[in-house]
Structure formats: C-alpha cells, structure tokens
Amino acid sequence: xxxxxxxxxxxxxxxxxxxxxxxxxxxxxxxxxxxxxxxxxxxxxxxxxxxxxxxxxxxxxxxxxxxxxxxxxxxxxxxxxxxxxxxxxxxxxxxxxxxxxxxxxxxxxxxxxxxxxxxxxxxxxxxxxxxxx
Length: 133
Prior knowledge:
CATH architecture: Roll
Shape: elongated
Strand order of the largest sheet: 1-3-4-5-2
CATH topology: Thiol Ester Dehydrase, Chain A
CATH superfamily: Hotdog Thioesterase
Helix content: 10-25%
Radius of gyration: 16 Å
Structural class: alpha+beta
Largest sheet: 5 strands, antiparallel
CATH class: Alpha Beta
Number of domains: 1
Distance between the termini: 18 Å
Order of helices and strands: EHHEEEE
Strand content: 35-45%
C-alpha cells in the first residue's frame, strides 16, 4: 500500500508500484468454482483463466491503493502464459506505461506481470484506466 493518495499528478511513468503476492490454494479454488463454476472441466488443480485475471486485478488495486474514488476501468489486453496450480505463489508487479489528458479525462496505462515462485511468467496485461483525480 502506498503512503499517499496516488493522484494522476503523482503517477511516474516507468516507476514500479511494487509487487503484490498471493497464493493459489484449494480453498480459494473451491470458492471461485462455487461462485463462477468451472470453466476448465473440473478435476484439476490448475486455476481457471478467469480466476488468474481476478487475482491480477485485485493485485493492481492493492498496488495503487490508496487511489482516488471514481476511476473507471476502460480496458485491458492480456496474455495468459500458463495456468498456476495449487501451491503456486504469484507475484504481480505493476508499472505505469503512459498517462495523458484527452478531452478532459485522465487516461493511464499500467503494465502488470505475474510470475510464480520459480519466476516463470504467468500473466501479462496492459490495463487502461480513466483516473479520477
């Protein structure tokens, strides 16, 4: 968590926002499947692709916290390199790629990378947001 509110003016292009760590465990996998179902055919210890995306978005929220209320997730482009399995520790990093004001709105792009405990690339994403303040 950041020490000060991450306003648009404080976002520094290329400056890491840190690393967020999470663990894939059976309980988390069971909770996900109970709510969203199983999009990978069951009987596997691998996390569904949607769950990985959710983990990355939760990490991004933590890494930019505190941030101004009222922002908008405007889009994302991502690549899932491999599905993590139960027991994997995921480390998600985030770095601002760009920011600009267009038509009075503050646009920000962030690059995230998620790696496992063996430093294997799991997930890459470029997130586009309209920053509130």
